Amino acid sequence: VFALIVFACLVGEGYTNLPTSSKLFCIFNQNEDACRYGIGIGVLAFLACIFFFMVDIYFPQISNTTDRKYLVLADLAFSGLWTFLWFVGFCFLTNQWAWTQADHVRVGADSARAAITFSFFSIFSWVSAAW
User: What is the pLDDT of residues 16-56, one digit of tens each?
Assistant: First the structure.
């Protein structure tokens, strides 16, 4: 859910333009990589959650213990990796937001703050998934 919120905030209001120009730019210090990173990990996290949810549904039907072991280890490794990636994303978005000039952001400031907040919450949700 947190990944979906981050993705939606960045896609919905993560790009804006100046009144004097029609060119869109990322509201995080006009750094396109910040928006791309947040959108990328949000989408991949959401898709991975769907995949591992489906694995959890079919897990009792898997009779091979080796396959079960590898699925559990894949879930653990992915959760650990995504914990780190969300931490990097939180730090990156927070840093870019701190350097953003207030006069460049007329619309989307609340979405930017929400993306930062829910990327922070995502760290703890992925830690709990790894635990």
Answer: 887 787 888 889 988 999 999 999 999 999 999 999 999 99
Against a cut of 0.70, is the pTM above it? yes
Distance, in Å, from the CA atom of 17 to the CA atom of 87, rounded to the nearest integer, reads 28
DSSP 49-88: HHHHHHHHHHGGG---HHHHHHHHHHHHHHHHHHHHHHHH
Residue 104 region by backbone torsions, left for phi larger than 0, else alpha for psi between -120 and 50, else beta: alpha
Are the C-beta atoms of residues 15 and 26 closer than 8 Å to each other? yes
State the Cα torsion 26-28-127-58 to the nearest 10°: -10
pLDDT at 121: 94
